[in-house]
Amino acid sequence: MLLDGNITEDFRTLIERRGVMAEFSLTLSEDQIQIQKWVHEFAENVVRPAAHEWDEREETPWPIIEEAAKIGLYSFDFIANAFADKSGLLMALVSEEMAWGDAGIGLSIFGTILAVTGIFANGTPEQIGEWIPQCFGTVESPKVAAFAVTEPDAGSDVSSLRTRAVYDEKSDTWTLNGTKTWITNGGISDIHVVVASVDPELGSRGQASFVVPPNTPGLSQGQKFKKMGIRASHTAEVILEDVKIPGSCLLGGKEKLDERLARVREGKKASSQAAMATFEASRPVVGAQAVGIARAAYEYSLQYAKERRQFGRAIIENQAIAFKLADMATRIDASRLLVYRAAWMAANRVPFNSGEGSMSKVFAGETAVHVTEEAIQILGGYGYVREYPVERWHRDAKIYTIFEGTSEIQRLIISRAISGIHIK
Fold it and tell me: What contacts 242, CB < 8 A, 6 or more positions away?
């Protein structure tokens, strides 16, 4: 079904804009600047003051999600507008500011976007209109959503997924069986977008994405993981045991899937893989989160270096400290530029022929790890204790070299893209 009123028009505009290319520019519009300031204020006044508490509790910060929903930050309308931004930069701006506040809380609020991206990248206009609003719930009762790809025995090897989806033509239903792991919002979500194999012989080209609606029997949460960082974000296994969903829950529809599988079996080139179509669009957003963490650590250590005095002068007057900060600032700016380019390309459907999406993610992720480590070094012993936030930022940063494709996988994608050779 499609939504009524203005939301329908918003989504029609969003869908229409998928085919319109915008000029690439680093000059932010007045609207983008105002939204950036608005999100920064929320991150500064609501998220950052609560970051330590929720990191210690290792629980989903529902009160903050509810607050974000009340002001319209966590909402279908806001995300629709962000996705409709022809420059592609708005979601990157928002992601950076939220991660600057706290990456764990930011993921709790916006982890839903990965599922939204999966629906938007693979679904029909009718499916987009039906399922994406349900990912967010309502202002009075906000919900979250999950995108389930990774499996215990597959990891970065998406082609080896064992979760199966079997179609019954008589009842027009799919039955899903398997186990997913390391899933953000896994098991606590109303909407789960699950990538499963429909033809194992075809590997990753024989996979499809499915929406599992709320309260579907057979879906349950498995182990919840205790993590090194981003601890306010819920990460768990998702168990699928004879999960039956109607045929309409296959994103893109059965006809489109059959056409794609037929082309693959004939040895012809197929469209994007189910999981990769989502990751390609989300990598710049993930890179922007890493930039936000790095920026937070840089700004904090810069201020500390100006105020901390040793041997009669501020420690920033020493080249050893000043040069660290200069390199930190340079790498953050370079990361942001890579993110902006990839975000623009993703929004305007420009192919990542040289692995630009992966470039943005791997460079920004490794920059976040480097910058937060240098921040700890600048603060010395204070950087190592939990009373100061830089140790938390360092713990949070590390995941950005691992999830949604490790740094090694990103380099594999880039090397294949620039060489044209299937490097293993």
Answer: 175, 176, 177, 218
CA gyration radius, the chain: 22
Domains of the chain in sequence order: 17-141 (1.10.540.10), 146-265 (2.40.110.10), 274-419 (1.20.140.10)
Compute CA distances 304 → 72, 124, 327, whole Å: 35, 51, 17
97 catalytically annotated: no
First to last CA, the chain: 44
pLDDT single digits (tens) 220-250 = 999 999 999 999 999 999 999 999 999 999 9
Q: Which of 44, 307, 404, 408 is catalytic?
A: 404
Q: If 0-12 CB within 10 Å is exposed, 13-18 middle and 19+ buried, where does residue 218 land?
A: middle
317 vs 310: CA distance, rounded Å: 10
For the whole model, what pTM was predicted? 0.89
230 and 399 Cβ atoms separated by less than 8 Å? yes
